[in-house]
User: Which sequence fits this backbone?
């Protein structure tokens, strides 16, 4: 049984702690047996039966739970760096989309690649994320928008999951945008999602959740009700992309539909906040997207004051958030969303696990839980997120196995 010693601070983020608390333990040790945590606490209290076990030296690092990215679009065909340059010049995102860029361009590029090619790209992106300390990733489809291409993307995620390089939770986002070929008959596209795509996704067990992008130019509340209702009848949980560009009442809709999370929420008003808190829907902030779009970020203090815990995720996608750097998103959650470093860490661990229904498995360090943890070379969580460096994770463990070491 390996025992990790010389941990300056162990930050378990346990599920039983009061809201906002991380349960920090100074001068700690952590023991695990195969893929499960066997013991953790102050090193001075390490039971004597563990004394002669394999010793792993943490080198004075802090140890946090494996990071959980609860919102990514990991599988996509090709980048859009030229659009980035156009946006830098001041061209609006919606004008780029109208000119054939934006999500539909990624859809075309994703349709053009076969499953193996997409798998290789997604695998290499995922390998990079694990070097940053990310051990669990929620992955959305939504760049296929045909039955064949949506299943192709979800099969890529199933292969990544089988690989075991990280824990993967898949979400079907067939209702990302109405594809160009359905522009004048959007009801037919909603029919396709409900009558063909969702039953196929459910029968192959390719996704745990269904997500809908509710926004002007995407899907309406009524369409979301129908799609997520169909998904629920097939055993899929609900997620929503809402209130990103305006308050469309998305938070109230998420509460009404008992969604596990609602994501973006930049424009959600007090009413929507209260309804989501009451219903226990996890709010997910995506500050990298706010940064790249130069849009007003979600005010996390409003949510926290209303009784919520806020999840922090990347929204990794080739348009509005072209990086899967979760520690960067955590720093931005502090500077842009006004979260404390501890709240940002919780938002990318325990709260993030809750946002994807994995709170019993991931996002905290507790005896009996999976041994997913990260060694971070920093004196404290405050220092880590304040003095930003490209990568402070010196080792990442998934199920007790070291998948990254520096
Ligand atoms: Zn997204």
Assistant:
């Amino acid at each position: 049984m390996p025992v990790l010693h010389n941990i300056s601070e162990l930050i378990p983020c346990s599920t039983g702690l009061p809201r906002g608390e991380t349960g920090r333990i100074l001068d700690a040790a952590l023991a695990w047996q195969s893929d499960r945590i066997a013991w953790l606490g102050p090193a001075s209290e390490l039971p004597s039966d563990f004394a002669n076990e394999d010793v792993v030296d943490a080198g004075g690092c802090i140890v946090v739970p494996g990071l959980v990215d609860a919102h990514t679009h990991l599988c996509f065909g090709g980048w859009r760096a030229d659009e980035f340059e156009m946006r830098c010049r001041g061209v609006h995102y919606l004008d780029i989309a109208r000119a054939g860029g934006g999500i539909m361009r990624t859809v075309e590029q994703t349709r053009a690649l076969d499953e193996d090619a997409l798998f290789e790209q997604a695998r290499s992106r995922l390998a990079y994320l694990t070097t940053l300390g990310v051990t669990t990733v929620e992955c959305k489809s939504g760049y296929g928008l045909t039955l064949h291409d949506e299943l192709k993307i979800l099969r890529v995620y199933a292969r990544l999951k089988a690989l075991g390089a990280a824990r993967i939770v898949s979400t079907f986002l067939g209702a990302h945008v109405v594809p160009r070929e359905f522009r004048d008959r959007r009801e037919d596209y909603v029919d396709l999602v409900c009558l063909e795509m969702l039953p196929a996704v459910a029968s192959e067990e390719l996704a745990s959740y269904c997500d809908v992008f509710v926004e002007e130019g995407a899907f309406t509340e009524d369409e979301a009700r129908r799609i997520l209702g169909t998904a629920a009848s097939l055993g899929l949980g609900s997620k929503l992309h809402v209130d990103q560009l305006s308050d469309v009442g998305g938070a109230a809709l998420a509460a009404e539909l008992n969604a596990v999370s609602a994501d973006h929420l930049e424009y959600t008003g007090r009413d929507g906040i209260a309804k989501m808190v009451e219903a226990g829907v996890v709010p997910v902030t995506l500050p990298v997207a706010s940064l790249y779009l130069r849009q007003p970020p979600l005010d996390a203090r409003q949510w926290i004051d209303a009784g919520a815990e806020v999840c922090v995720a990347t929204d990794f996608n080739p348009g509005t958030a072209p990086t899967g750097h979760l520690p960067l998103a955590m720093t931005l959650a502090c500077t842009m969303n006004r979260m404390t470093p501890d709240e940002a860490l919780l938002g990318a661990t325990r709260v993030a696990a809750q946002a994807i229904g994995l709170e019993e498995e991931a996002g905290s360090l507790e005896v009996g839980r999976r041994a997913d943890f990260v060694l971070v070379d920093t004196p404290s969580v405050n220092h880590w997120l304040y003095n930003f460096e490209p990568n402070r994770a010196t080792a990442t463990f998934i199920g007790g196995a070291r998948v990254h070491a520096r």
Notes: The radius of gyration is 21 Å. The pocket of zinc ion is lined by residues 71, 73, 241, 315, 317 (CB under 6 Å).
